[in-house]
């Protein structure tokens, strides 16, 4: 008889659960890093805009 050995279904479910948890952890770490970088760049842009160091208006020079 060709079939999976007993207990294989539990191992597959366990593997899927471990992969899902690891995926969520890695995605969370990446998202946290990306969000911090984006926040820092946005804050820096608006600070420079308020100080007059940069302008979003095209000059006619």
TrEMBL record:
<keyword id="KW-0812">Transmembrane</keyword>
<dbReference type="InterPro" id="IPR008432">
    <property type="entry name" value="COX5C"/>
</dbReference>
<keyword id="KW-0472">Membrane</keyword>
<comment type="function">
    <text>This protein is one of the nuclear-coded polypeptide chains of cytochrome c oxidase, the terminal oxidase in mitochondrial electron transport.</text>
</comment>
<comment type="similarity">
    <text>Belongs to the cytochrome c oxidase subunit 5C family.</text>
</comment>
<keyword id="KW-0999">Mitochondrion inner membrane</keyword>
<keyword id="KW-0496">Mitochondrion</keyword>
<protein>
    <submittedName>
        <fullName>Cytochrome c oxidase subunit 5c</fullName>
    </submittedName>
</protein>
<feature type="transmembrane region" description="Helical">
    <location>
        <begin position="12"/>
        <end position="34"/>
    </location>
</feature>
<keyword id="KW-1133">Transmembrane helix</keyword>
<dbReference type="GO" id="GO:0005743">
    <property type="term" value="C:mitochondrial inner membrane"/>
</dbReference>
């Amino acid at each position: 008889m060709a079939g999976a050995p007993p207990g294989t279904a539990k191992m597959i479910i366990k593997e899927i659960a471990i992969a899902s948890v690891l995926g969520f952890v890695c995605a969370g770490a990446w998202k946290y890093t990306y969000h911090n970088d984006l926040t820092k760049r946005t804050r820096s842009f608006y600070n420079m805009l308020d100080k007059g160091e940069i302008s979003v208006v095209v000059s006619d020079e």
